[in-house]
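User: Here's a chain of 356 residues. Predict its fold as tokens.
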Amino acid sequence: MTDSGIGIDIDIDTSRNAPATLHDVAREAGVSLATASRTLNGSTRRVKDEYRKRVLEAAARLDYSPNLSAQAVARGTTTTVALLVADIADPYFSSIAAGVVAEADTAHLIVTMAATERDPERELELVRTLRGQRPRVMILAGSRPTTDPTGGALVEELRAYERSGGRVVLISRNELALRTVLVDNRRGAEALARELVGIGYRRFAVITGAEGLRTAADRVDGFRDGLAATGGELRDADVIRDAFTRDGGYSGMRALLERGLEGVELVFAANDVMAVGALSAIRDSGLAPGTDVAVAGFDDIPTVRDITPALTTVRVPLEELGHRALRLALADTDADAEGPVQTEVVLRESTPGISR
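Assistant: Prediction complete.
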């Protein structure tokens, strides 16, 4: 182009400004357009490793980026998995998320995560927002409340999302009649109670979440069942409720200690992070956890193997929950043929046992 005012010729290479297209990538890699598309656009059809490598290298050389918005319009979904958890900072949920991410990698999908803070209204709002973003899968990993004023609206949102081509999977109980990775919290807690009575404990207290949290209720009910079957004792006054967090475990244990243990030999915390808080409260009160009062938890988050004393708990294969949830979402069937996830009681130093 010539600027007649100053007589300088300026050549502009407009070709460099045009973004690379999928056709460009296919031509550069020496593969068909269909093969390039399957490699880069998250198709479930497998591409030979040799071709996939060539396509990815060509895309990198050309600085190609898929048009995700156009893909979503064309397919009705994106290549993303939306994971909703109650609390991102809780190792229970971060372990589940690790499993989802690992499984998503094998399916060439991307995981996005949001926290509901155990607030049903926030959960409903997040689901509505995510529907507009058209993820391929939505996984809800937070425990359901026993009484949920948003339950009907949530089910409608999730079913509408599935009608548009998405897949929903819950982790925990199947109270919403959707695809679910089942965790038998009640049976795991019952087995724990039986084991603890078997090593000599008779008087128990429980620190658990506030009324209305289904996971906590199932675990407390199962623990009561196990004690009733084996002769252990849990009085209603010895069930302390607080936040379902580490700090809730700490303050719940402090309340129990300030009131007086009154013969309580072992405290069952309804999740491991509460148990960690309880151990700290015992120690801060000048007592020795595991010696002056025993403590047990539930979940077997990685942290509890390294604290002192190591925590007795019920092992839930948390990363496997994440793997299984995404496998179930991507499967052709509506049922989980693998059945409920198996739990396992793990006895450690925090419950050394009592000789009678």
